[in-house]
Design goal:
Elements (H helix, E strand, L loop, with lengths): L1 H6 L4 E12 L2 E10 L4 E8 L5 E8 L5 E2 L14 E2 L16 H4 L3 E2 L6 E2 L1
Parallel strand pairs: 6-7
Antiparallel strand pairs: 1-2, 2-3, 3-4, 4-5, 4-8
Length: about 120
């Protein structure tokens, strides 16, 4: 990660690592990058014992508004409501504010959810 930041330092004003835990091959990592245009990128990464990798990120503009990748505008709204949260876990999220980018497409995702691959 530090190599990536160094390669693109002309665009990055600052960065903050709020969580870094490693045990053997397992990893938990959270960071925030602030760019020179004052937009921010929030990153979470997990590497599990089986070496499976999961990560999530979201980007906000200089006013703190959630930004979507350009390809997202081409995604048409779904006909039927959809939730990224499985039915057995929805009760944990019922009071959570929804993500406005996904809401435009008739999809419920928690507000801080952007991508989890």
């Amino acid at each position: 990660m530090l190599d990536l930041i160094a390669r693109h330092e002309r665009f990055i004003k600052s960065f903050h690592v709020s969580l870094y835990e490693q045990e053997g091959e397992m990893l938990r990592f959270k960071a925030q990058l602030t760019f020179t245009n004052k937009s921010k990128l929030f990153i979470k990464e997990y590497v599990f014992e089986n070496k499976e990798r999961k990560y999530a990120y979201h980007w906000t503009d200089s006013s703190g508004n959630m930004k979507a990748p350009e390809w997202c505008a081409a995604v048409q709204p779904l006909d039927e409501p959809f939730s990224v949260i499985s039915p057995e876990n929805r009760s944990f999220w019922e009071d959570e504010k929804g993500n406005p980018i996904f809401a435009k497409r008739n999809i419920f995702a928690p507000e801080q959810f952007m991508f989890f691959l």
